[in-house]
Amino acid sequence: MTERQQRICIWAGIGFAPIFLVGFAIVAGFIPPPSPSLPAQQVQRMFIDQRDRIRVGIWIASAAAPLLAFFVAALTHQIRRISGPDSPLAIAQLIAGSCLILEFLFPQFAWQTAAYRAERSAEIVQTLNDLAWLPYVGIVGTAMAQMLIVAFVVFRDNREQPLLPRWSAYLSIWSALAVAFGSLVVFTHSGPFAWNGVLAWYLLCVAFFTWMVSMTWLMLRASRRFEATQATPISASDRPAPDPTPGSAPDRTTA
């Protein structure tokens, strides 16, 4: 039953990705992101002209965010299996993952607020848009903490057949370094480190979703392997007969 619940959490967690991309990219049209250097009037015009599209798309993306809780729970379960049920690293990963969910939700409601009264001052609409994009891309510390915790735990798994392969630790480290570029969005309005830049946005997205999909596959594989290695109780009829007690006479049958 535990492994079935584990796999339910894993599949529910990865369900975040397609639902989020449909809402955020296809419906809201936020990929590619609008330029941070857009004048206030253009930002306001975007929210007025595309109000319904933005509101529905961000509503879908907001509905997807809680699914991350299942991914975080599954990852915490795997860390406990490697490091032990009382591992503080599992708790740290759980807290970081919980914060990550909020980091998706709060900026999305800043966009909803901008669209809700898009006819107000253009500067206010622009401020709300900034208040959404800057933390959306720029707060990367919680995701980095999750990735680095996974890397550390995998490196510390000294079993003959580790629960998660060693290459997943290197992938986690690369992903943590790649998403770190997102933190630089607060310093520029254009270029590769802007919120629509190659490094701050596109590399961040590729790294995060590559890590998430890879960890999903690895956790599913680990769950099935763990389930397969569980000892199956042997019935009494299948048990081999015990050896005779030392010193006792062998059993003889009469014709």
Q: Report the C-alpha radius of gyration, rounded.
A: 26 Å
Q: Helix tally? A: 10
The major beta sheet can be summarized as: none
Uncertain segments are 231-241, 248-255
Short description:
With 255 residues, this protein is an all-alpha fold. The protein has 10 helices and no strands. Helices cover 67% and strands 0% of the residues.
Features:
255 residues; mainly alpha; 10 helices; 67% helix; elongated; disordered C terminus
Molecular structure report:
The protein has helices at 2-14, 16-27, 40-49, 51-64, 68-83, 88-116, 122-138, 141-155, 166-179, 198-228. By secondary structure, it is mostly helical. The protein has one domain. α1 (2-14) packs across α5 (68-83), α5 crosses α10 (198-228) and α6 (88-116) runs antiparallel to α8 (141-155). The protein starts with a helix and ends in a 27-residue tail after the last helix.
